[in-house]
Amino acid sequence: MKFTAEQIAGILDGTVDGNPEAEVSKLSKIEEGTEGSLTFLSNPKYTPYIYKTNASIAIVDKDFKPEKELTITLIRVEDAYKSFSKLLEYYNQVKLNKAGIENPVFISDSASYGDNVYIGAFSYLGNNVKIGDDVKIYPNVYIGDNCTIGDGSVIFQGAKIYSDSVIGKTVYVHSGAIIGADGFGFAPDEKGEYTRIPQTGNVVIEDNVDIGAGTTIDRATLGSTIIRKGVKLDNQIQIAHNVEIGEHTAIAAQTGIAGSTKIGKNCLIGGQVGIVGHLTIGDRVRIQAQSGIGRNLKDDEAVQGSPAIAYSDYNKSYVHFKNLPDLVKQINNLEKQKSNDK
Q1: Among this protein's residues, is 278 annotated catalytic?
Q2: According to its UniProt record, which residues of this chain constitute the active site (predicted)?
């Protein structure tokens, strides 16, 4: 799909400086621009590239003043970075704008769906499934019985959504994610063997949540595992049964959260963090990557390490960690000197 500079300027409320009929069909970084691509300049560090890029159109701040002659067409806007981000969102919407029901699919007679939906080939919609308007379900998606998916949500290829799951509006579930599998519930008997504990709850995902590829969210034993609105989950995260994650919390890849832990609002959790079960993590908590959390955390705490300690204390201690070999050597020398003095 091609767009002219004039069309793009219309989308961004910008003005064209150059050829309004210049066409682009792809996006590029300014240093990698090729003919027919659109790029942007917002960081002054990249200014030299605008004089040698092969891109056809560049989005720039309206007060940008070139120091050399330019051949590239410019679109001047209030904020080049924000405008390019807006354009990326628009481009993504156009790219994902599929509609209709492909063949073959299985849709239960008791399932229902709204207007302007897309259901890709080899997808499965079970009994009493309810799909809202403008939902996109890509090929090879499984949606179990009694699930609900709200308006504008996108379920990418290969995702699996187990029965009774409730997904809100404008939720993105990426490939390979599994929502609603059994929680890790087993009880040992007197012989040391394990008996499965039925997981009879569900998963509730509120509006505007993003779930990365390969992430797994387990159903509750009783009640619900809950992901509150605006939460952003990276790829390959494990969320166990009865966990609750507060609004607008962001969690990086390979983090594991054990059962029944409650995480507050607006937290930032780094990659490969491990959080044990039945904890309460406050609001606005910052957990650095590879930390191990074994205690409750209060609002606004920042921690690092395993087991995690206060972030500032960790940084002070790390200075000594690095010097341990020298310190050991100094102690050994002092002991030798003490022995020689006797």
Answers
A1: no
A2: 241
